[in-house]
Amino acid sequence: MKQGKMPADPNRRAKATVDAIDAILDGTPPEKDPERVARGKLGGAKGGKLRAERLGPERRSEIARKAAEARWGK
Hints:
Layout: H1 10-24, H2 34-54, H3 57-72
């Protein structure tokens, strides 16, 4: 692969660099295992619901208060 001279303009040089690297790399992402994807979705779908059932109103309030302090720095 002949590259030639790099352009003097920084924007064109950046584009030429990205194009050169893009030509080298393969742009296809690896395939995902359908079983693992399904298990991940199942765990995420039931996790929040179970946590909400197990936490009492006082504990939820405490968690929310702590989050508000961390966010807004009371």
